[in-house]
């Protein structure tokens, strides 16, 4: 089993036939984001979108996210249903450590051995960045595989066998995103905890005309059965981060609507919809709201959320469409709905 470090521009097709992976074509799009948790605060505010002390609740391993097409009338392929994956993760940090000078590095059989001028202080599992070497192919960031001595360490890297380099520095990357259960030597502080999810969504091949090659539907989280959606203190509510981020008075597919409508490569760029984020709170609390960002006055973030799931079945009638808050009270005339289209209508815009 070989470990491949994925880097920007890596052509996966070059690895086929070598026992690494098998590639096959697919007309599908990605839907991804994060699920954060704030279960400790009596009423989360716009500045309390998550609490690092709260261990993420678990989503179903069989299917952590579903795409419900009952309201849109159209959906993803039924013959190739969405494939969704999720993992509980955390961001951990390490104490500052000065970079170390590299004497030499050599690559043999996809293993790079680095020799430093002094004690590097690194441990297996830590991630380091290599820069300034005479051979640019060694530059990048890598997980340390072994530590043979205080002045040598190794990492896995595909590349020319027998290549070598001199000079440059190795520096410990201060923050890592790892699986929730993983501990890495030297990384002693937990900055945040969350679930990362990704779905591969295949369009319905029976759609024609303007809908050809598109998918529709409402994304819903699925629990592992140990916790339930509801409106009491013993149940949980899902809040959807959503806002008019490009300030055109509407909500596009990229701005996390309740209903995704006609997602495809023509109307949505690559067809990839990312940063579709949620925060889970206690069921008897209110999803935190925020006003639009105001960069001129130093407010660069809109963390407004919308109630998304409060029940486990039916049409989720308690869930709301996306809105904007004209002031902090965000109620009455100060709460303006901007996802006004019926669920069966496509989004008439491109972001």
List keywords for this structure.
single chain, 351 residues, mainly beta, 8-stranded antiparallel β-sheet, 7-stranded mixed β-sheet, globular
In short:
The chain has strands at residues 29-37, 65-68, 83-94, 100-108, 111-116, 127-131, 140-143, 146-149, 152-156, 164-166, 169-172, 175-179, 187-201, 215-221, 236-241, 260-263, 278-282, 305-309, 323-325, 335-337. The protein has 351 residues and is mostly beta strands.
Explain what the structure shows:
- The chain is globular and about 65 Å long.
- The chain is built from no helices and 20 strands.
- By secondary structure, the protein is mainly beta.
- The strands form 4 sheets. Strands 4, 5, 6, 7, 8, 9, 10 and 11 form an 8-stranded antiparallel sheet that branches.
- Strand 4 (100-108) and strand 5 form a beta hairpin.
Beta fraction of the residues?
A: 25-35%
Mean of the pLDDT scores? 88
Distance between the termini: 41 Å
H-E string: EEEEEEEEEEEEEEEEEEEE
Shape verdict: globular
Helix content: under 10%
Topology:
Elements: E1 29-37, E2 65-68, E3 83-94, E4 100-108, E5 111-116, E6 127-131, E7 140-143, E8 146-149, E9 152-156, E10 164-166, E11 169-172, E12 175-179, E13 187-201, E14 215-221, E15 236-241, E16 260-263, E17 278-282, E18 305-309, E19 323-325, E20 335-337
Parallel strand pairs: 1-17
Antiparallel strand pairs: 1-13, 2-14, 3-12, 3-13, 4-5, 4-10, 4-11, 5-9, 6-7, 6-11, 8-9, 14-16, 15-17, 15-18, 19-20
